[in-house]
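Internal tracking record. Fields below are filled automatically when a chain is submitted to the structure queue. Please do not edit lines marked as system-generated. If the sequence contains nonstandard residues, flag them in the REMARKS field before resubmitting.
Queue: standard
Priority: normal
Entity type: single polypeptide chain
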Amino acid sequence: MSVTETPDAEGTPETEEEGVILTVTEVAAAKVLELREAEDDASGLALRISVTGIAGPEYTYDLTFEPVAEAADTDIVYDQGDLPVMVPADSMDALQGATLDLPGVDGQGGLVLRNPNRPDPLAGVDLDLEGTTAEKVQQLLEQQINPGLAAHGGFAELKGVEDDKVYVLMGGGCQGCAVSAMTLREGIAASITSAIPEITEVIDVTDHDAGENPYYS
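SYSTEM-GENERATED OUTPUT FOLLOWS
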C-alpha cells in the first residue's frame, strides 16, 4: 500500500482519543475500507501500520491487511470508524500522534502519513569527529547526513560557520521541496547540534523558490 510521509502540518495538534496511537481520517478510512473489500475475509482484517526502519531524517513504514484474530498480545488494536487499526508494540512510540490521510494534492494517489515524530539520526552511530568546527560539520555531513538524504535525491552542503552558527544549503531533491525546511530543522539541525555541542543554531540558506541552482549570499 503506497504511503508518503509528510511532517505534521504546522504542528497542528490532533484530537487524542484514549487507546489511539495513530489517527485515520474519515476519508482515508473510507479509501482503506474500499481497498480491503478486494481481500478475502475482508470484514476480519485490520490495517496494520508498522515502522520498518529509517531513511535519512524520516521513518519508513509498512501498511498491510492482517487478520484481527492474529494480532499479537503486545499489539494495540482499536477502531477508527469501521476500520480496525493494528499497531505493533515496537512502533507505538514512533507513531504516537501521527495521522493517516489522503494527499492534499489533486491527482496524487496513495496515502499520506503525517508524523510529528522523527528518528534520532545518530542513534547507534559511533562518530569520531576531529579538527575545527567546520571540519567536524563537514565530516558529519559526509559520513552520516548525506548518505541518508541521498535516498531522497538530495544533499546538504556546508556554506559557512560563524561563532556558534552553521549555515547549510540543501540541494538536489531537497531544494524546492515543501517539507525540506522542516527536514533541515528537525533532522539535520538536530544531528549537528547533538554531535557538535559548540554549535547551537543551524540556518538554512537555500532559496527554495529558485530553480535547479539555489543561491547563497
